[in-house]
Amino acid sequence: MSLRVAINTGGGDCPGLNAVIRAVVTVGKERYGWEILGVEDALSGLVDLDYRGPNGNRWLELADVRGLLARGGTVLGTSNRSDPFHFVVTDPDGSTREIDVSDRVMENYAKLRLDAMVAIGGDGSMSISAQLMGKGMKVVGVPKTIDNDLGATDQTFGFDTAVGIATEALDRIRDTADSHDRVMLVEVMGRHAGWIALHAGLAGGADAILLPEIPYRVEAVAELIEARRARGKNYSIIVVAEGAKPLGGAVSQLERQLGEMPRLMGAAHRVAAQLEELVDAPMRVTVLGHIQRGGSPSNFDRVLATRYGVMAAELVQARQFGKMVALRNGEIVAVDLKEAIAAPKLVDPRSQIVEQARALGVTFGE
Fold first, then answer.
1. Is residue 147 annotated as a catalytic residue, yes or no?
2. Is 143:335 a contact under the CB 8 Å cutoff?
3. Residue 340 pLDDT more than 90?
4. Which of 13, 83, 123, 147 is catalytic?
5. Which domains does the chain have, with CATH numbers?
6. Full-model pTM
């Protein structure tokens, strides 16, 4: 009997999402004859079947996924405010509060006669999927995040593209830093994991890389800048992860809004303000922000996302639910969803790659 399978993309957008959708739809329809429902804006389309974003929930056909391999973003839309266990509603007086609408999601899942869900997302989306599994939903997860912080997989798609974008920015910023003898600070994404900062910093030849996993002393960064100037190198490039924090201090973030994760912001500006008191040098801050999320995925991410999508479809057909696809030693495998969210994958301050950066003279602000 043909399956009715839903697919959704949750959390922040990321290069490669459309490639996964394309692979799942292609394999599901051509090989297995499924009906496939695209759920709009993460789980918003299951919280409310009358939800209407730009497209609404839609039954996907092969024509809907043609040309998606190179396209960034997600044709299904996404949201980081549709957690059904902490769903934000507005009361008549204008106040907002969080409620649990997971039972409604399950009722709509049953009403649509769905047999399974392919959930594409990061740690938050995988955690929600695990909770919905506990309520009876049949889920297969696909790991997506530019942060590369899911511990059950060697790499998430989107990470390679984000590093490439950040590296190109560093190459460009180096030219203007050299021309003006400036200290240039570049803030990159990653939340509480420093993978983008570490890899882009190495690829872009940064002089200092400040990571969430290694609390920094601004004095150590100032010493590096002064040492470079003493050697006639009048510019410095500092990569700052958005989750970087000073020794004994906290991350820079905005006040948390209901239904959202805390938004990290201001890490590089804080470092610049501290350095200005210690170093007599012109400084500029560039925050790359969401530019790291957009655009066409890299070749690596296109291939990885496609392989993930194919494996996800095969797991659904085999009724292997409660699993997440993962990359391990070059092979795509299935891991337990609970294992995927057990612990985040963070940069080890004593790992080989960090020690190799130190050998090159890169400071981590220790």
1. yes
2. no
3. no
4. 147
5. 4-157+297-340 (3.40.50.450), 162-294 (3.40.50.460)
6. 0.93
